[in-house]
């Protein structure tokens, strides 16, 4: 069965610090990978996604993630965080047979990021 | 942008009663909608996949007779929690898959408290 692990429950950083949130998945086949963000009091929003091609994907607000197939990882990075990045971040995966449909997403437990001004 | 709404945003009900939660895609059509449940400090757990005009597909361990899902139109899906019990108290989130792009857009969630 598919599963997603996010290693950090809560990360606290100062502004301008670099960010890396870990995400590992368990699935034997082709996967589609996603990072979602939930700002306080708001909906889940798609941050970035990987379906195929260049394993380094860039999303909104300066975020990027790298798919490393050999490590079953899809870590999220940002070189310099801002106070406004304070939110909860969820990694998600679905089987590649869904193509771009994002059907049946399996979510990690989420990582809460707190950025101190 | 694509917007998904849920109503109500929070509800308190007595044990044994039924509660209906609506999920609407406001500015796009969604052939597929998904219902998730989230416990505190836990991941979103997919409960069921709802396709317009057909029966919902429930995930293993989700009681279909307890969590009734109806997807009567391309913009509306409903989740009815029947004979609610305190253990059904949770945060229920829906998402809608855009008909053209298939990208999934999430609603704001509904907090259900059963007393």
Outline type of chain B: globular
Radius of gyration of chain A: 14 Å
Return residue spans of chain A where pLDDT drops below 50 for at least 5 consecutive residues.
Answer: none
Q: Strand portion of chain A, in percent? A: over 45%
Number of strands of chain A: 12
State the helicity of chain B in percent bands: under 10%
Low-pLDDT stretches of chain B: none
Instruction: Summarize the helix and strand pattern of chain B as letters.
Output: EEEEEEEEEEE
Strand content bin of chain B: over 45%
Distance between the ends of chain B: 37 Å
Structure description:
The complex is a heterodimer of chains A (117) and B (115). Chain A is mainly β and 117 residues long. Helices cover 0% and strands 51% of the residues of chain A. Chain A has strands spanning 3-5, 10-14, 19-21, 24-26, 31-38, 44-50, 56-58, 64-68, 73-78, 87-95, 106-107, 111-116. Chain A is globular, with a radius of gyration of 14 Å. Chain B is mostly beta strands and 115 residues long. In chain B, the strands form two sheets. In chain B, strands 2, 4, 5, 6, 9, 10 and 11 form a seven-stranded mixed beta sheet that branches. The A-B interface holds A 4, 9, 36, 42-46, 90, 99-110 and B 4, 32, 34, 36, 41-46, 49, 93, 95, 97, 101-109.
Short overview:
The complex is a heterodimer of chains A (117) and B (115). Chain A is an all-beta fold and 117 residues long.
Blueprint (SSEs and pairs):
The complex is a heterodimer of chains A (117) and B (115).
Chain A: E1 3-5, E2 10-14, E3 19-21, E4 24-26, E5 31-38, E6 44-50, E7 56-58, E8 64-68, E9 73-78, E10 87-95, E11 106-107, E12 111-116
Parallel strand pairs in A: 2-12
Antiparallel strand pairs in A: 1-4, 3-9, 5-6, 5-10, 7-8, 8-9, 10-11, 10-12
Chain B: E1 4-7, E2 10-13, E3 19-25, E4 30-38, E5 44-51, E6 57-58, E7 67-73, E8 76-81, E9 90-98, E10 104-106, E11 110-114
Parallel strand pairs in B: 2-11
Antiparallel strand pairs in B: 1-3, 3-8, 4-5, 4-9, 5-6, 7-8, 9-10, 9-11
């Amino acid at each position: 069965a598919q599963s997603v692990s996010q290693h950090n429950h809560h990360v606290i950083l100062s502004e301008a610090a670099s960010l890396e949130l870990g995400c590992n998945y368990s699935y034997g086949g082709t996967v589609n990978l996603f990072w979602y963000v939930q700002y306080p009091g708001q909906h889940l929003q798609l941050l970035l996604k990987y379906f195929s091609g260049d394993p380094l994907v860039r999303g909104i607000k300066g975020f990027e993630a790298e798919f490393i197939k050999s490590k079953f990882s899809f870590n999220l990075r940002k070189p310099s965080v801002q106070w406004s990045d304070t939110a909860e971040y969820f990694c998600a995966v679905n089987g590649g047979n869904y193509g771009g449909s994002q059907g049946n997403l399996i979510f990690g437990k989420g990582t809460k990021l707190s950025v101190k001004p | 942008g694509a917007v998904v709404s849920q109503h109500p945003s929070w509800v308190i009900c007595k044990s044994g009663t039924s509660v209906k939660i609506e999920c609407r895609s406001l500015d796009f059509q969604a052939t597929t909608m998904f219902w998730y449940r989230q416990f505190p400090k836990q991941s979103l757990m997919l409960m069921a996949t709802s396709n317009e005009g057909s029966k919902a597909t429930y995930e293993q361990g989700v009681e279909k007779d307890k969590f009734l899902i109806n997807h009567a139109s391309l913009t509306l899906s409903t989740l009815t929690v029947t004979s609610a019990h305190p253990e059904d108290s949770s945060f229920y989130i829906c998402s809608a898959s855009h008909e053209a792009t298939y990208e999934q857009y999430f609603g704001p969630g509904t907090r259900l408290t059963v007393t």
